[in-house]
Amino acid sequence: MNLRQLLREQASGIVEDWFQAIVATYPPETARFLKQRKDRFANPVGATLSKEITNIYRGLLEEGVDAADLDRFLDRIVRIRAVQDYSADAAVGFIFDLKKVVRRRLGDKLADGALAAELREFEDLVDRLALKAFAIYASCREQLHMLKVNEMRNLYARVLERSGVFVPVPEQAEPDGA
Amino acid sequence: MADPTPKPEELAQVDHKPGFEDWMDTKPEFRPGMYLHAVKKESLEGVGAPNPRDWNPTDHDWKLPADWKGIVREGIKERLRRFRTFKLFMDICVRCGACADKCHFFIGSGDPKNMPVLRAELLRSVYRGEFKTAGKILGKLAGGRKLTEEVIKEWFYYYFQCTECRRCSVYCPYGIDTAEITIMARELLNLLGCQVDWIGTPVNNCFHTGNHLGLKPHTYKENIEYLLDDIEEYVGIRIEPTFNRKGAEILFITPSGDVFADPGIFTLMGYLMIFEHIGLDYTWSTYASEGGNFGFFTSHEMMKRLNAKMYAEAKRLGVKWILGGECGHMWRVVHQYMDTMNGPADFLETPVNPITGTVFEHAASTKMVHISEFTADLIRHGKLKLDPSRNDHLIVTFHDSCNTSRGMGLLEEPRYVIKNVCNNFYDMPPQTIRENTFCCGSGAGLNAGENMEMRMRGGLPRANAVKYVHERYGVNTLACVCAIDRAALPTSMDYWLGPGTIRVTGVSELVANALIMEGEKPRRYNLRGEDVNELREEVGLPPIDFPPEEDEEAEGEAS
Questions:
Q1: Structure confidence by residue, pLDDT tens digits, B175-220
Q2: B357 lies in some domain
Q3: For the domain that residue B121 is a member of, what is the CATH number?
Q4: Does ipTM surpass 0.90 in this model?
Q5: Least CB-CB distance to B464: which of A41, A151, A162?
Q6: Nearest to B322 by CA among B253, B246, B247
Q7: Which residues are CB-neighbours of B125 under 8 A, at least 6 positions away?
Q8: Rounded to two decimals, what is the model's pTM?
Q9: Chain B neighbors of A26, CB-CB under 8 A
Q10: Does residue B17 sit within a domain?
Q11: A25 inside domain
């Protein structure tokens, strides 16, 4: 059996372990709450984590899964962690937990080294996923700052505009040869 | 010197699991994005509030007054005497946890101290440690702790992370209102001058100029005149409302955010058009120019001082009753405090709708009616000429403001109005609306810019429910009846659902866009000045065949 088949076969166990590992990055009282995943409206964080890591895991295993889809799944989790009490490394570090989880789950089957090349390939995928997660994290943080700026602008722009404080910038012609 | 570069085996030890200290030993960290700026010294001085000074929450020394401990102890004692609810709420919680996962800040942040039960415990533990025998002797064992500067900092951090939305209280089997505990804690902080600027400065402005923004009478009037110009441009009619007119039948008061903040201004244009449409005898006031009351987030006394202007102005102008605009906490203050604070307003009359004759019995005491109640009554009696198809490009859901839903039971009226002016309406799931509604995440004075991260955490549960109806029904419009919602939700929607995905609108804006005004020109533009056909195209609707604009202009010149 190759690694991909193994990962597929053990998918539900691996995803569940991964979920537990992510939830453990929250304080214990919160972790207990996050594990109740039935109501996506009462517990949006737990439900989103659970659903999207399942999607991400599937995305990693299935060839031809749209990269944009994978980005979307990741975004839903990282967007939440980008505003929670995490440093940048902790916010996206959960991706690397998947490596640990897989090694732990498949420990005995990986022992003889026959699947080493495939495993390295899989772990490279996880690394690339982490980079994507970091890019999303950075864009979320940037968006937060832009939202601050936009609010400030909306608050005062209209008043200033109408009070004649702004001088309209005349339209500029394209420089020659542009 | 040892090489500081971590070894591979050290790096492998990186662990993101949190510590397991007791909650009393975990201290908040004042990170940018997670706290509000301290109030300006002048703002406290302006209203004679205690301990004005320059300070910053990230400073080690908060420059508390010399006898700060005595002040807080006395403050607690006095409030235990004055407020029976406070005394009860300090004593009766059995920590069943029913409230724990109901707070939007807990759900969004995952910080256990945002569980309402634990947030209340921040104050309760001091009550036990300082006032109860068991707590005094046994300390932590009996859930008690002493008052320290660290405790004050923790209060400041967490009690300005509660929007007093009261969702948790809906689920408490004992009926404990955690918002009241926050209210008390904020009062105690205010005794030490530990206020946030987003509340303290509007309070000072309101006290001196009549509104939170500090708009002076001529500016207030001018801003409304700009909006009248816009109405003339897009609707083709000139409205001429009156200001400070003695002898008007009704005084209209709305939050000042509606006068100049986007998208509140469009709601205000809606009020103007509705009143013009029915020929209402009413007046604006440049003195009672604020419906909101940030005194409510400061102390009972400050709330009373700021609220007094409403009745004072109604008396001065000699109106019969007061009509109020779309606002959240303004209505909690009006509905639950005004009558006993500054009433009875026996110089006013029980409100009667002059157009329909409906007597608003429920407002017999406060003499103040909500615009959604008023509009719903007009629609019910067929007094508004409406064309809901003008809003066909909007697929609408409704966000119940915490204060109007849980604070005054206004659940049906806004929905009734929306359904009469829009053809596409979908409610969010039941556990997220009406009395179970999730806060916008920025109420009770938290709608500042510097705490954006905190606001986004708080806004997550609401945004999550909007996302559901957006994905399921294509909802593109979030209607609400609160000025803070109108200010806060666009940002939250942009972050959680993507920029430009959801339009946030006041209900009165929807009404006015559907209103067939006498003498209007073809309504090719909505109140935001957007081309209706472009909006229709975005949702796949065929264009409306408006006459060419040049013809209208030529017609106008000829006449």
A1: 999 999 999 999 999 999 999 999 999 999 999 999 998 989 999 9
A2: yes
A3: 1.10.1060
A4: yes
A5: A41
A6: B253
A7: B24, B135, B143, B144, B145
A8: 0.94
A9: 18, 110
A10: no
A11: yes
